[in-house]
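re the bet — no i am not wrong, look at it urself. input seq straight from the record:
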Amino acid sequence: MHRSALKFIKVAITYLDFNSEPQLTNLILSHVFALKTCRRYSMTLRRIITKLLIRVGSAKVRFATAKEHLSLVTYVERARRKKQNVKERAKLLALMGKK
């Protein structure tokens, strides 16, 4: 039951309008982290957090996240930046003619 609800939230984030309803970030994160077995769905949670980071920004996600879950948000944010830096570096090396 929880898994299908989390997957629905993951897809719904794409279509929600966070500008007209700013409390959606708080609502989503509070309910996602309220699960007793939230560690069981860590990959789905990471994808939800990644989508929220892209849609609303790091500051709003950090503000809406409880203190005990900030480490997960930090980890996801760092992994996303690292992946982005690798892509940018590969593009720059390709422009310079190096592999």
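see?? The first helix runs from residue 2 to 15. told u. also Residues 2-96 form one domain. so pay up
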